[in-house]
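I have a small job for you when you get a moment. Can you supply me with one protein entry, sequence and fold together? It will help me judge whether the discrete encoding reads sensibly. Write everything out right here, beneath this request:
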Amino acid sequence: MISPYVRRLRLGAELRALRAGAGLTHEQVAKRIGVSRAQVSRLENGHVVDQADVMKILDALGVDGDRWTLVMTIAREAGEKGWWESTRGMGERQALYANLEAGAAAIREYQQTFIPGLLQIPEFVRARVGADTALEPLEGTVDGVLAGRAGRQRMLRRPGAPGYEVIIDELAVRRLAAPPDVVKKQLYHLATAGNGRPAVTLRVLPVDARLDSYAVPRCTFSLYAYPDPGDPAVVAIDTVTSDVILTEPADTAPYEELYTRLRAAALPPAASLDLLTSAADNLPDH
């Protein structure tokens, strides 16, 4: 399935374009179909999906043929329920990432301080849950978080899985985010994941890397691209308590450029795997 979150954004863009093309205001469209102005705004902003109202808008604007079929298909896909909605306790933030990952053609990620969730082992997840609850209440349950991680990781193994490229800052490798024996096992897993799956490319950004124009990254972020060229590219920025989602080209372009510079400064995959293995070898077993 295609990310319902992204399809809601696409639906809103299609409805805005149709209304603008007809030269109508929100109020005029709302009056024609018998709903409030706020409802039309919510549809156009991607906050709600109501296929009946979308159909009324298309009829009111005289849309038919292939354009009608396209918009109604997008509306149907925007209203679909993903597996993450029935996975209890995985947490809203993780559910958002699962939504964005659904149907993506390519996922690129820069991880500044942690091992990426798509490559975390269960022992590491449990250790991080315990550490994070010292700062904020657990969102969901331990079992739910683990189930969410497992569901997201299955996405990388399915037929037609997206290409996944991740740049991990050396800081995330060297600074212990879990007990040493857990980190040791996690680093070995990263080396295996990066070496054993053609769809996964892993690079390490050395602490002493020289970035073009000294463009030092300020945060962890992920970039998502989708097969339909009409769907927006998405950037998700990870903060301590929430996630910022960007979809406007002017907002996402700086992250595209930053990722390009990080990738150029990072170690190639083979050297990255050597660094990960060496770091794991130097950690105690218990």
